[in-house]
Amino acid sequence: MTEKARRTERTEAELDSRIARLPRAVEPGRDLWPDIEARLDTAAPDGDARRVTRYARRGAAAAAVCAVALLPLLLREAPVADGPVSMATVPEPRATGLDTAGQQLRLRNAAVTSVEPGPEYRAARAEVLALLEGRLAELAPEDREIVLRNIETIRRALEEIDGALQDNPDDPLLQELMLQAYQRELDVMARVNGLAGPARRRTDL
Amino acid sequence: MNPKTLTLLLLAALPLAAHADRDYERTVATEGAKEVRVSNTAGSVEVKGSDRNDIRISGVLEDEVEEVLVEREGSAIDIRVKVDDARRNYKRAAAELRLEIPAAMSLSVVGTSADIAAQGVRGEQRLKSVSGDVDTEVWSEPLNAETVSGDIRVLGHDEAGRARLAAVSGDLNVESLAGELEAESVSGDVILRDSVLSRGRFSTTSGDVVAAVGLASGGSFEAESVSGDVELDIAGEPDAEIDASSFSGSIDNCFGPKPRRESRYAPGSELRFTAGEGRGEIRLQTLSGDIELCTR
Fold first, then answer.
1. Under an 8 A CB cutoff, do B203 and A181 touch?
2. Quick check: is A202 in a domain?
3. Alpha-carbon distance B55 to B160, whole Å?
């Protein structure tokens, strides 16, 4: 064993020992329940809100299951390259065409909803996005702005749907709209990639 | 005129000479080709279907357009506006192209900021531009038109065909189309008039869908939007299963039962009923957009 490996082992052992010494639970200094109960009563004097919360929890679980089950349908039409793609393998874009770091962050953030898209969706999106960032650089600034603004529109729509879905997690309309919105985002990115390529050198459509 | 004045005049005229547009004209034999493919970065492409057997190309080229390449590739004829790569600045690289082609040939046009207009082309069409508008008419052959910010206008001739239109912010305007139509835009509106569809599918994110259509027997019409309104005017007596739902928008219908609230906790409403014998299907969905359903 090298000296470096021995040092690492010692550090890990020390960390394990410190973790083991941590208390399993931390008791609050006072009873917190009366305050919580009072707030719950204020929020739901007739008990409706508590029922909604209970339904919401069950519904959220159902929505998550539905979303996970339906995502392969969504991905079927997504322009994914052959073979598995992981987030780690997505190359950094060459010329991004994005004017601000905020735009980059906003676009690169795959999930804007509490129902997380699956890893395959994220990988597909990352791949389409990497190409898009390069393509945007080839567009005129006003066209680039239009594309970004419209992707923002879709993302705001996703947030709006998500907000509604959190209050009504078992609503099939909302679940469907969310999937369609995620799909539309991919479609738009793929369309821009197709249109904004080197059209002047392309004759095969 | 003294030499000094003459020199000044010549110098003043130099920029004009440097930006001289030039005319272009050429006739190409089709020799059994079935498709014309045009690529033009900026300017316009106007295509007219005619009864001639050859392809006539004419137009005006700006000075940074190097040449118009015409090549045969399999059963297609490629017409490509070549821009001087070394001097390209996109400001003087436009070509205004006019083509007359045999009406039955298929047509593909791709541009970046070029407007595309086709008239009298009866073959299959694929028309794509980033910021240019697309304006065409169709008969029974398929049409696929895509833009980012350009508007798309399609005039049909009531012959059953298949069209797929997609824009990002552009509006989609369709008139007198028959058969199958799929149209989607993010923020652009989808407007459909005087058409009879066997299958229609429309989707937007914030754009409105406004459709005045007849539904073929057993046909389907689906429209969905997140925040855009959906307005459907059905020609004649509707004969379909109707399913309209909005999460927080209103539903207003002038036939059938009144919509009902979906949930006591949510503001939205839904409307489900059978009109006529229910042979077709009409499905309208929004998140916050309003839905209007009527007959005319």
1. no
2. no
3. 28
